[in-house]
Model the fold of this input.
Amino acid sequence: MEEKNQENQNQEQELDLNQLMKVRREKLARLQEEGKDPFTITKFNTTHNSKQIKDNYEQLEEKTVTIAGRIMAKRIMGKASFCHIQDGEGKIQSYVSINDLGEESYKQFKEDDIGDIIGITGFVFKTKTGEISIHAKEVTLLSKSLRPLPEKFHGLKDMDLRYRQRYVDLIVNPEVKDTFLKRTAIIKEIRNILDEKGYMEVETPILNTIAGGASARPFITHHNTLDMDMYLRIANELYLKRLIVGGFEKVYEMGRMFRNEGMDIKHNPEFTNIELYAAYQDYHDMMDITEEIISRVAQKVLGTTKITYQGTEIDLTPSWKRISMIDAIKEVTGVDFNNIETDEEAKKVANELNVELDELKLTRGEIISQVFEAKVEDTLVQPTFIYDYPVEVSPLTKKKPSDPRLTERFEVFIGGREYGNAYSELNDPIDQYERFKKQVEAREAGDEEANMMDDDFVTALEYGMPPTGGLGIGVDRLIMLLTDSASIRDILLFPTMKPLGDH
Done:
């Protein structure tokens, strides 16, 4: 019965919407018949926006201004009316009367609908209640809204619809705009920091013949002219390291990556990532720059390094905790993998810890990584560098001289999530080739995320790559953190969505 009532309500709402749209189209048709088609207007010159007027009231009082924006509210009171219009910087009220506009123009204004875009020329004043407003002398209809905005008091609350129709979300939920203004500021500040440090921004291919640089399942497309399958990049690492071979000593690229994997609050098939590489540096240097980038961006954009994410207080102020993966596991579980030598021993310990293991990944190193993910990750609330990863899960990383079972790699965790991944980059072409071979074997055994063989990258290393530090930061996750957003969809203007009607 409840489902039936909801169905009837939806049908009534659809009927109302269709009727409202019909009325608006009829209004447009009348305007067009009268030679007043708003869609023929190609330009409208403004002098100010709403924020400028409010911020500079003393200088602008009684001065003539011209603004443009969308009607968000109207109050008709006979021969005088008030409306609120919303532009790119906020809302402002306007007083509109028949005495100022004349009978014909005022009649047209009364016909204008919520959602229509208008231009207003008039002088700045304050109402009796003290609200900064514009006393309209001229109103111009610039665009007709043929579809009504969501109902005033309920707004656009359906999250799925908000993601699908971000344009409406931005209109009726103006606080959403602040998230995307912060997104732009965060990206800009990351670039400023790296530019200041002498890194050169470069561009590398998005279409690749080999999906390399990360362990992930790629998207496959087809190049018609070459009649060959290609992959959307899952990382830009291998191209950037080729540039280090070529003699550029500090490079970075920020851009879209594509991974054909599951979707959840932390993952979208396309996402923004930044990778940077510096010759003659190692993973300790990459820890330093990671800490600096994230703390400086927070200070610049938010004005503080002490933030709250989903109710949890997090302090991004340097210096952050640094601990090896094996020691972190020992801290949480009491198990010391330094004392565990064989795959069988490692598997036994994992079973005792109730860690569900991937049957394709049962070496000691792979088990260490899985135990860490299951038992430790969620506990890393304050910023923490976890370093010295097993070689089996780090195919592009230089081995640790004191223990060749480990690599000079770290990941940084905040709030139980990983935000960055960095290496002392592997520059031994013989070792790299052997590790690629093992990845290929894993791929042939069924691991679709294993690396492919990249012969050209090995060739590049054979020419000689200096000792190099490399770092990748998940930009979208960082933006989630700094905007207190629960889902990655909240910080993507147009997240990937299944088309309506698909089941």
